[in-house]
Write the structure tokens for this entry.
Amino acid sequence: MAKQFALAVNGKTLAIESEPDTPLLYVLRNDAALSGPKFGCGLGQCGACTVILDGVAVRSCITPIASVGDAKVTTLEGLGTSEAPHRVQQAFMDEQAAQCGYCTNGMIMAAKALLDANPNPRTDEVKQALAKNLCRCGSHLRIVRAVLRAASTERGQ
């Protein structure tokens, strides 16, 4: 039976009517018309659907809407704009860290959560934080460079 949910997404409150076990990904894409999080595997294994829930990178394809509660949801659209991209988004552009781009949402969201928790990560920490986000194109080296660039941008280097 459908229930009413109030979700805090990218600084706005959305009133959603949905089944409690509906994946957050479906609500974000279908009800909120947000296209940042992607459907990849549907099993929480690829990372394409990653969003940030109260500072933690989570897989929205396996997160039921009923479990979100009062948590603040941030999607790729909540980071920056094309006119003023977030420093992680800008670093990905500067390093040309995307080929097909399908994994980019998950990589950027995981990178943002990492940099929020650890503003000065070592290369091995970046690799560990991104290890569960799959990229079939082989852009890993550019992605790691982009995250390190975003970290140095924050430090003003």
About this structure: The chain has two domains: 3-77, 87-154. The CA atoms of residues 118 and 151 lie 9 Å apart.
